[in-house]
Amino acid sequence: KLQFLYLIVPPGQTYTLHIMRATGALHRNVLRQNGVTGQWVVFSPSRRDRPMQTCSDKHADAGRVKVTELAETDPGCPFCAGNEAMVPEVLHQDAWEHEGGADVLRVVANKFPAVAAAGPSGCGAAIRRLSATDDANLCIPAVGHHEVVIETTRHNVGLGLEPGSSERLLRAWHSRGNALAARDPTLQHVMYFKNCGAVAGASLLHPHAQVVALPIVPTPVAQRQDLHVKFYRKAGVCVFDATQLATSADDPTQRVVLENDKFVAVVPYAALSPFTVWVVPKLGDGFGHFEEADGATLRQCGEMLDGALRKLHVALEEPDYNLVLRTPPLRGRYEQRALNADAYTRWYIEVSPRLGVGAMAGFEIGSGMFSNANVPEDDAALLRNV
């Protein structure tokens, strides 16, 4: 089955799309499509040059590194206090006071981006679709916006371990997502994520998160949206409401870990791996797009995320983890004009501890299904009692 990559040319603009054979060394960021599976993969040769703290010699014999056991400052870390000249211009900042003094969250452009920086007019985008060619292996330039959120100037303060830290991250993501969308009308989707620890794919130990804005809708995002739309058309309700994610934590048989007025932290019914936690808006419309959340919503979501991360930190002894904020493609962009995300979906946060169990192996790779030895209700009960 031929898969198409959708890219848009705004009226009055032109853009040259180079379809290249995937041969020779790569000297720029590109998207390659596997002709056998139809999957698109981003290749970013420059990222090989990014600084690596998680696999450095000084940590090689120590096993897994716990951020909270590190010194407050690392002289060689580009994100630590005193090394401000080592990072690009600050795009967003949020200062606050803590017991030890002043601190600041900063957002900067990623010096080693997965997608190449767009020009002054934005990604410009390309063509409506790639038609069939004789070459099974397609290769096109990878363009977009890639930014880093430096959560703190301190090297050893994990997300969620200080009150308000998750809310600050959410505010930064919200601000930059909206700024990028307003600046570049060709963008279709913004990704928000955090990799914590070497097992989760982080190259730096210093607490940080990332934003990647794309002029395409990644295939898994489109598939998830299609699933939610089909469910709504069939059942007449949002799939998040129908699966009753927002239930009372008073019932010990449920998968709820903690909750407040607007959000609930739960272990999902079919969790892909042990101790996966979702932070999900409760029942009701108005939570379709993260970029449209108000300050009160970000505050309550941050409160739930802080609580969930603290419980995971204690119960699992500071695990490596991946954190992804899942939100639909930007409202009103191209095909999205025909859809109302408030009706059929919710934005939510997924935290996946990387415990060395439940990982991809032969069964998972061969079947496309995950296996999980932990029962979600048991995981939720343990976390509730932390």
What does the model show?
The chain has 8 helices and 14 strands. The chain is of the alpha+beta class and 386 residues long. Strands 3, 4, 5, 7, 8, 9, 10, 11, 12, 13 and 14 form an 11-stranded mixed beta sheet that branches. A 3-stranded antiparallel beta sheet has the order 2-1-6, with no helix packed on it. The longest helix is centred in the last third of the chain and has 21 residues, at 295-315.
Supply the helix-strand structural class.
alpha+beta
Number of helical segments with 4 or more residues: 8
Strand content: 15-25%
- Beginning-to-end CA distance, first to last residue: 49 Å
Q: What is the number of beta strands?
A: 14
Summarize the biggest pleated sheet: 11 strands, mixed
Shape: globular
Helical content stands at: 10-25%
Observed structural traits:
globular; three-stranded antiparallel sheet; 386 residues; alpha+beta; eleven-stranded mixed sheet; disordered N terminus
Architecture blueprint of SSEs:
Blueprint: E1 30-33, E2 40-43, H1 57-60, E3 90-98, E4 101-109, E5 116-117, E6 138-141, E7 143-150, H2 165-183, E8 189-196, E9 208-214, H3 219-235, H4 239-242, E10 256-259, E11 263-266, E12 277-281, H5 295-315, E13 320-326, H6 341-344, E14 348-354, H7 362-367, H8 376-384
